[in-house]
Amino acid sequence: MHMCLIRLDQVNRKPEQMPYYTPLDPVRFLLRSAMIYRDKTAVIHGDRSFSYETLADRVLRLANLLIHAFHVRPGDRVAVLCQNVPAFLEATFAIPAAGGVLVPINTRLAPPEIEYVVQDSGASILLVQDEILPRVSTTVRASTKLIHIADYQNRGDPLCPYERLLQETETKLMWKDLPLTTDENAIMTINYTSGSTGKPKGAMISYRSIYMLAMTMCIQAQITHSSKYLWTLPLFHCNGWDFPFALMAVGATQYMLNKIDYGYVWKLIKEQGITHYCAAPTVQNELCHHKDAVRLNHVVHSFSGGSTLPNKLVRRLNSLNVHVTQVYGLTEVTGPAILSYDDGALSQHPKEKHLDLFSRQGYNILSLDQVRVLDQKTAKDIKPDGMQIGELCLVGNTTMRGYFNNPEATKKAFREGYFWTGDLAVIYPDGAIEIVDRAKDVIISGGENISSIELENVIGSLEKVLECAVVAGPDDKWGERPVAYVVVKEGHTITVEEIIAHCRERLAGYKCPSKVMLVKSIPKSGTGKLQKNLLRDELWKSHKRRIN
Questions:
Q1: SS3 of residue 113 by DSSP
Q2: Boundaries of CATH 3.30.300.30 in the chain?
């Protein structure tokens, strides 16, 4: 027996609302798909799966629960501290449906960091998963209402508090009664930056930005109703790069994944016919070199972001029938902002140049109006010659409204009508962008600028090297010199001398590392980004200043 049929006309319009205008609200994607793809599988997690109709009912119940039991009112912040479990996906739609503002929290944060985000955002409710609960401080527990979510809720398991609350909740308010947004520029979510240069800042993302990026992902990620998406990317990271909304819009199936188990990922890709996933280069690297890695019988589309993919890794992915798109993005622009050359763009160039072109970040996404590289002092466009360096600046529909309760940081980020990313880049005659470095990661040695990314790419091209991070270390003569941290592939050996010799064959002497540290691992953030700040902290701990 079917639940109440969901129809788009069950969402009320204001009497004064003109027929040609409806505010862009990505929550409506769920209503449309629940009507069209009612019995189609929407979500799979463990041994449980939900149809689109069931998912919409669960979201409606959660919205009612938040309004009636937890007294959420429009504008109230509701935080989520979960891995990629169904409850997180449901909350992503239910919180705005209840009029609240979603605050996703990085699951790898330490207790003081979690406490900071909860307090800074003013969240009054926290949906928290059992595994992460021990990291929720007594201060947060005392000031915030908690909703407990099980790590797994398989068939036959006793109901966790979250599931029990959903089951007990009456849907007093139907979709037409919910306080869905009437302003597409209202804040839908506050996404906190990684905080690598200080305290995390909350980027305020509007309904319009989420909607526009979702439409872009549908087109540029080639998502359809037959797509099967595997959640290897954390949902907390830029709202999962907006894929929850894009996938919901087209009626695709989402496979939830608490943690990355590479053997299980390969099992799902091969047996379930996964068509799409997103991952940082570190994850791509592990997938490519896993013992279960084989060339697939079907094409898998993958978005990769966080840092540049080495050419050898792109070749390896292609050999496995994984078609990868390189992504550049930031929390402040809702996620992806620039995508690498697609097949159509590459076809205009000789095939032998494709890999080198692919290493560039590429072009702005459809919903981001402009990507400019500007002189940091004059705010004028630099020469599009692939050599002159400026700061990457962005403007368009997916840009944040500003930092939550932080007007000073907002003013600093927004200048001359652009969002200044803090990333240094060049622009080529064909309009393609290439990131040279983070402004804070440039190594200034004896007055010469050294790109850490360039040096990382050279070291990373060694077949025996798994990954590499280059940072500035103190030097009595030159002020700063490059220090390379290198992880060697399992079962292989390489010497420091070999690495330095390899660099000297390919780079000017001043660009080569003064030290190479062979390490077992490099610290990473919850999204897989290399945490260079921790490496720098160790090198500079005996110095009063970071500039020598």
A1: helix
A2: 446-540
Give per-residue pLDDT as tens, 299-338. 999 999 877 788 889 999 999 999 999 999 999 999 999 9
Residue 459 · residue 453 · CB < 8 Å: no
Q: Which H or E element spans position 44?
A: strand 41-45
CATH topology of domain 446-540: GMP Synthetase; Chain A, domain 3 (3.30.300)
| CB of 395 closer than 8 Å to CB of 403 | no
Q: Is 204:400 a contact under the CB 8 Å cutoff? A: yes
**Across all residues in the chain, what is the average pLDDT?**
92
Handedness of CA 535, 537, 538, 543 (dihedral sign): positive
Residue % of the chain over a pLDDT of 90: 76
Domain with CATH 3.40.50.12780 in the chain: 260-439
Q: Which of 236, 239, 242 has its CA nearest to residue 525?
A: 236
| Predicted pLDDT of residue 2 | 45
Could you tell me the pTM of the whole model?
A: 0.86
Cα separation of 66 and 88, whole Å?
A: 14
Render pLDDT for 370-405 as a digit per residue (tens, 0 to 9). 899 999 999 999 999 999 999 999 999 999 999 999
Q: Tell me how far CA of residue 215 lies from CA of 266, 277, 358, in angstroms.
A: 29, 17, 24
Q: Where are the alpha helices (DSSP H) in 424-522?
A: 452-460, 496-506
* Overall fold of domain 260-439: Rossmann fold (3.40.50)
Q: What is d(CA 369, CA 246) in angstroms, rounded to the nearest whole number?
A: 20
CATH, range 52-202: 3.40.50.980
Span(s) in the chain for CATH 3.40.50.980: 52-202
Region 220-227: what's the mean pLDDT?
97
Q: Which positions ≥6 away from 85 have C-beta within 8 Å?
A: 45, 129, 149, 151, 152, 256, 258
Beta strand pairing call for 433-438 and 418-427: antiparallel
Contact 129, 108 (CB under 8 A): no
**Is the Cβ–Cβ distance between 481 and 443 less than 8 Å?**
yes
493-515: pLDDT as tens digits: 999 999 999 998 888 788 899 99
For residue 514, the model assigns a pLDDT of: 93
